[in-house]
């Protein structure tokens, strides 16, 4: 293999690789991951309002994905940012998390509109999550270093036209399933490696690659919504993640990498199911209490809203036609008296925190 970590890896081979990707162990993990993913997809379809959970789950995924890049924010800042209380946020990392969520939503729109994943779409995702108009890397000299020792571990391909050619080949592999008969989950592992190895942007490659993972699963109809919480798994196994990526490049060790990704999908699907279940159970447990205090003013839509945002304010009730401003404020005050939500004043606005939901999300 023609690889030298100090030289641009311009000879990075196109996919699929020359490797046995259907070993008994890979096969077993693929079946398990597919089963758990199907369960998660099916479960989301039974939800009365799937978008209700989308907001909260995507925010968590955004937070974890940014944390991999050492962009660290607190739950508190994160949810203030989700309600656009951005002028009150001291930590710019929270704004980056919101940009990640917007990039994910934008990518989802493109998938629904065009049905394929393109280079232009990946550029658009990177631009949205970085709030930048940067494009494919043009300048030479990009090198990836170990954050602790600062020693060079990888030099990605160089030159805009070469990078675009590698991306065009990747695009073909992503969208044309007639080229091979690999299981989509195995393909996802290959695609993720290839995108990170091409490293097409000056910044934002890791986050764009993680959004690509989820959008690919949606594109292949293995997920209905971007509710897979994969970045948490990568954070928990960060050194293995980088080690296995490097071993593909240096030793052509695809098996260890593919197994790592398949385990991640399975564990993450299980964890996401558990989190959704916990949120729904919490929602169910709170309904009788809210019914009791609001009496005839009670509405299921109000409870849905309370579980769409960990922070809520009266104008959100008004925008969703639950009640006019003054009545909405009365509703929230009554619910606060039960202990289910807690009010805080930020500037002139009063916000109500769904403390139970915050606890589940931050666990």
Structure explained in plain terms:
The mean pLDDT is 88. The protein has 15 helices and five strands. Helix content is 62%, strand content 5%. It has helices spanning 24-46, 50-68, 75-82, 92-114, 119-130, 160-175, 184-198, 205-219, 230-236, 238-251, 254-294, 300-306, 314-319, 325-336, 355-362; strands spanning 144-145, 152-154, 311-312, 341-346, 349-354. It has a three-stranded antiparallel beta sheet, with helices on both faces. It has two domains: 24-271, Fido-like domain (Fic-like fold); 276-362, Arc Repressor Mutant, subunit A (Orthogonal Bundle), CATH 1.10.10. By secondary structure, the protein is mainly alpha-helical.
- Which sequence of SSEs, written as H and E, runs from N to C? HHHHHEEHHHHHHHEHHEEH
Mean pLDDT: 88
- Strand content range: 5-15%
CATH superfamily of the largest domain: Fido-like domain
Total count of domains:
2
Distance between the termini: 44 Å
Features:
363 residues, mainly alpha, Fic-like fold, Arc Repressor Mutant, subunit A, three-stranded antiparallel beta sheet, two-stranded antiparallel sheet, 5 strands
Short description:
The protein is mostly helical and 363 residues long.
């Amino acid at each position: 293999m023609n690889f030298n970590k100090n030289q641009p890896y311009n000879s990075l081979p196109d996919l699929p690789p020359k490797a046995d990707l259907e070993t008994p162990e890979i096969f077993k993990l693929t079946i398990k991951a597919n089963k758990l993913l199907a369960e998660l997809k099916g479960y989301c379809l039974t939800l009365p309002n799937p978008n209700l959970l989308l907001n909260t789950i995507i925010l968590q995924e955004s937070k974890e994905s940014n944390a991999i890049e050492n962009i660290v924010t607190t739950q508190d800042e994160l949810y203030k940012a989700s309600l656009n209380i951005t002028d009150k946020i001291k930590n710019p990392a929270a704004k980056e998390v919101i940009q990640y969520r917007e990039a994910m939503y934008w990518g989802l729109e493109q998938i629904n509109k065009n049905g394929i994943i393109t280079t232009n779409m990946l550029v658009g995702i990177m631009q949205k999550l970085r709030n930048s108009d940067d494009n494919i890397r043009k300048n030479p000299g990009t090198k990836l270093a170990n954050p602790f020792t600062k020693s060079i571990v990888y030099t990605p391909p160089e030159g805009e036209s070469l990078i675009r050619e590698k991306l065009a080949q990747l695009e073909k592999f992503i969208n044309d399933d007639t080229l091979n008969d690999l299981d989509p989950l195995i393909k996802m592992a290959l695609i993720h490696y290839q995108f990170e190895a091409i490293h097409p942007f000056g910044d934002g490659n890791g986050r764009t690659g993680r959004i690509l993972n989820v959008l690919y699963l949606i594109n292949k109809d293995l997920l209905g919504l971007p509710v897979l919480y994969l970045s948490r798994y990568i954070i928990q196994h960060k050194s293995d993640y980088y080690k296995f990526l490097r071993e593909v490049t240096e030793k052509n060790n695809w098996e260890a990498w593919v197994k790592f990704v398949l385990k991640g999908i399975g564990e993450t699907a299980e964890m996401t199911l558990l989190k959704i279940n916990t949120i729904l159970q919490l929602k169910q447990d709170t309904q009788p209490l809210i019914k009791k205090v609001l009496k005839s003013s009670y509405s299921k839509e109000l409870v849905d809203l309370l579980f769409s945002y960990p922070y809520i304010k009266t104008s959100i009730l008004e925008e969703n036609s639950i009640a006019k401003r003054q009545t909405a404020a009365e509703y929230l005050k009554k619910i606060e008296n039960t202990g289910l939500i807690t009010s805080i004043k930020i500037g002139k606005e009063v916000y109500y925190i769904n403390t139970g939901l915050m606890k589940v999300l931050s666990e």
